[in-house]
Design brief:
Shape: elongated
Order of helices and strands: HEEEEEEEEEH
Distance between the termini: 102 Å
Strand content: 25-35%
Number of helices: 2
Helix content: 10-25%
Radius of gyration: 30 Å
Length: 197
């Protein structure tokens, strides 16, 4: 066996003091990395409205299912029906909400509709957090969409109690957007349903 002409290097015969120095240096690096964190993100939603947008394992949160929700609509024995629903991130928190058009399950006629925003916290049951159109307003809903954080619909109503319930004679194009801590409604000028039909 041939011996090396180079002198023995310090790291080839490590002593406990060398290991202690290495451990101290590594601890300093880990501590420094812990101090260098990105700036905290800011949020505008209240603590009660925060939603977890990632489930365990990193899967995106699913939109709440309106089928299991108790809507604030008294239909007696007729029951309620979800006529339409759509999902989207309405408050910008990264988690989807569901918007549902709900009315009584009448066999005929045009029962008034309600538009409700449904959310679901992590592990909680879906629940109504906002009423955009109350059925007490006696309006029907058409052209319903949720797109880019905006809920849009055409609202059909009646100018007087003498107008038959089958034939609304007023319409309004409405849109709702989350601003600060509430949904803000904007409308186009009211028109006549018969003129625009």
């Amino acid at each position: 066996m041939q011996t090396s002409a180079l002198p023995d290097l310090a790291h080839t015969d490590a002593k406990p003091v060398h290991w202690l120095a290495t451990a101290t240096a590594m601890a300093a690096v880990v501590a420094a990395a812990g101090l260098l964190q990105p700036e905290a993100a800011t949020a505008t939603a209240s603590a009660s409205e925060h939603r977890v947008t990632q489930q365990h394992g990193g899967a995106p949160a699913e939109a709440p299912d309106p089928a299991g929700v108790t809507f604030p609509l008294d239909c007696g024995a007729a029951g309620r029906t979800v006529a339409e629903s759509a999902t989207g991130d309405l408050d910008g928190d990264g988690g989807p909400e569901t918007v549902a058009v709900v009315r009584c399950a009448a066999g005929s006629g045009t029962p008034p509709s309600g538009i409700y925003v449904v959310t679901q916290g992590n592990g909680a049951a879906p629940r109504v957090v906002a009423t955009l159109v109350d059925p007490a307003q006696k309006l029907s809903v058409t052209d319903f969409t949720v797109r880019d954080g905006t809920v849009s619909a055409t609202l059909l109503g009646y100018s007087s109690a003498a107008v038959p319930r089958c034939c609304p004679d007023e319409l309004e194009s409405a849109a709702w957007q989350w601003k600060g801590n509430a949904f803000v409604k904007t409308t186009a000028p009211a028109g006549s349903a018969s003129r625009n039909a």
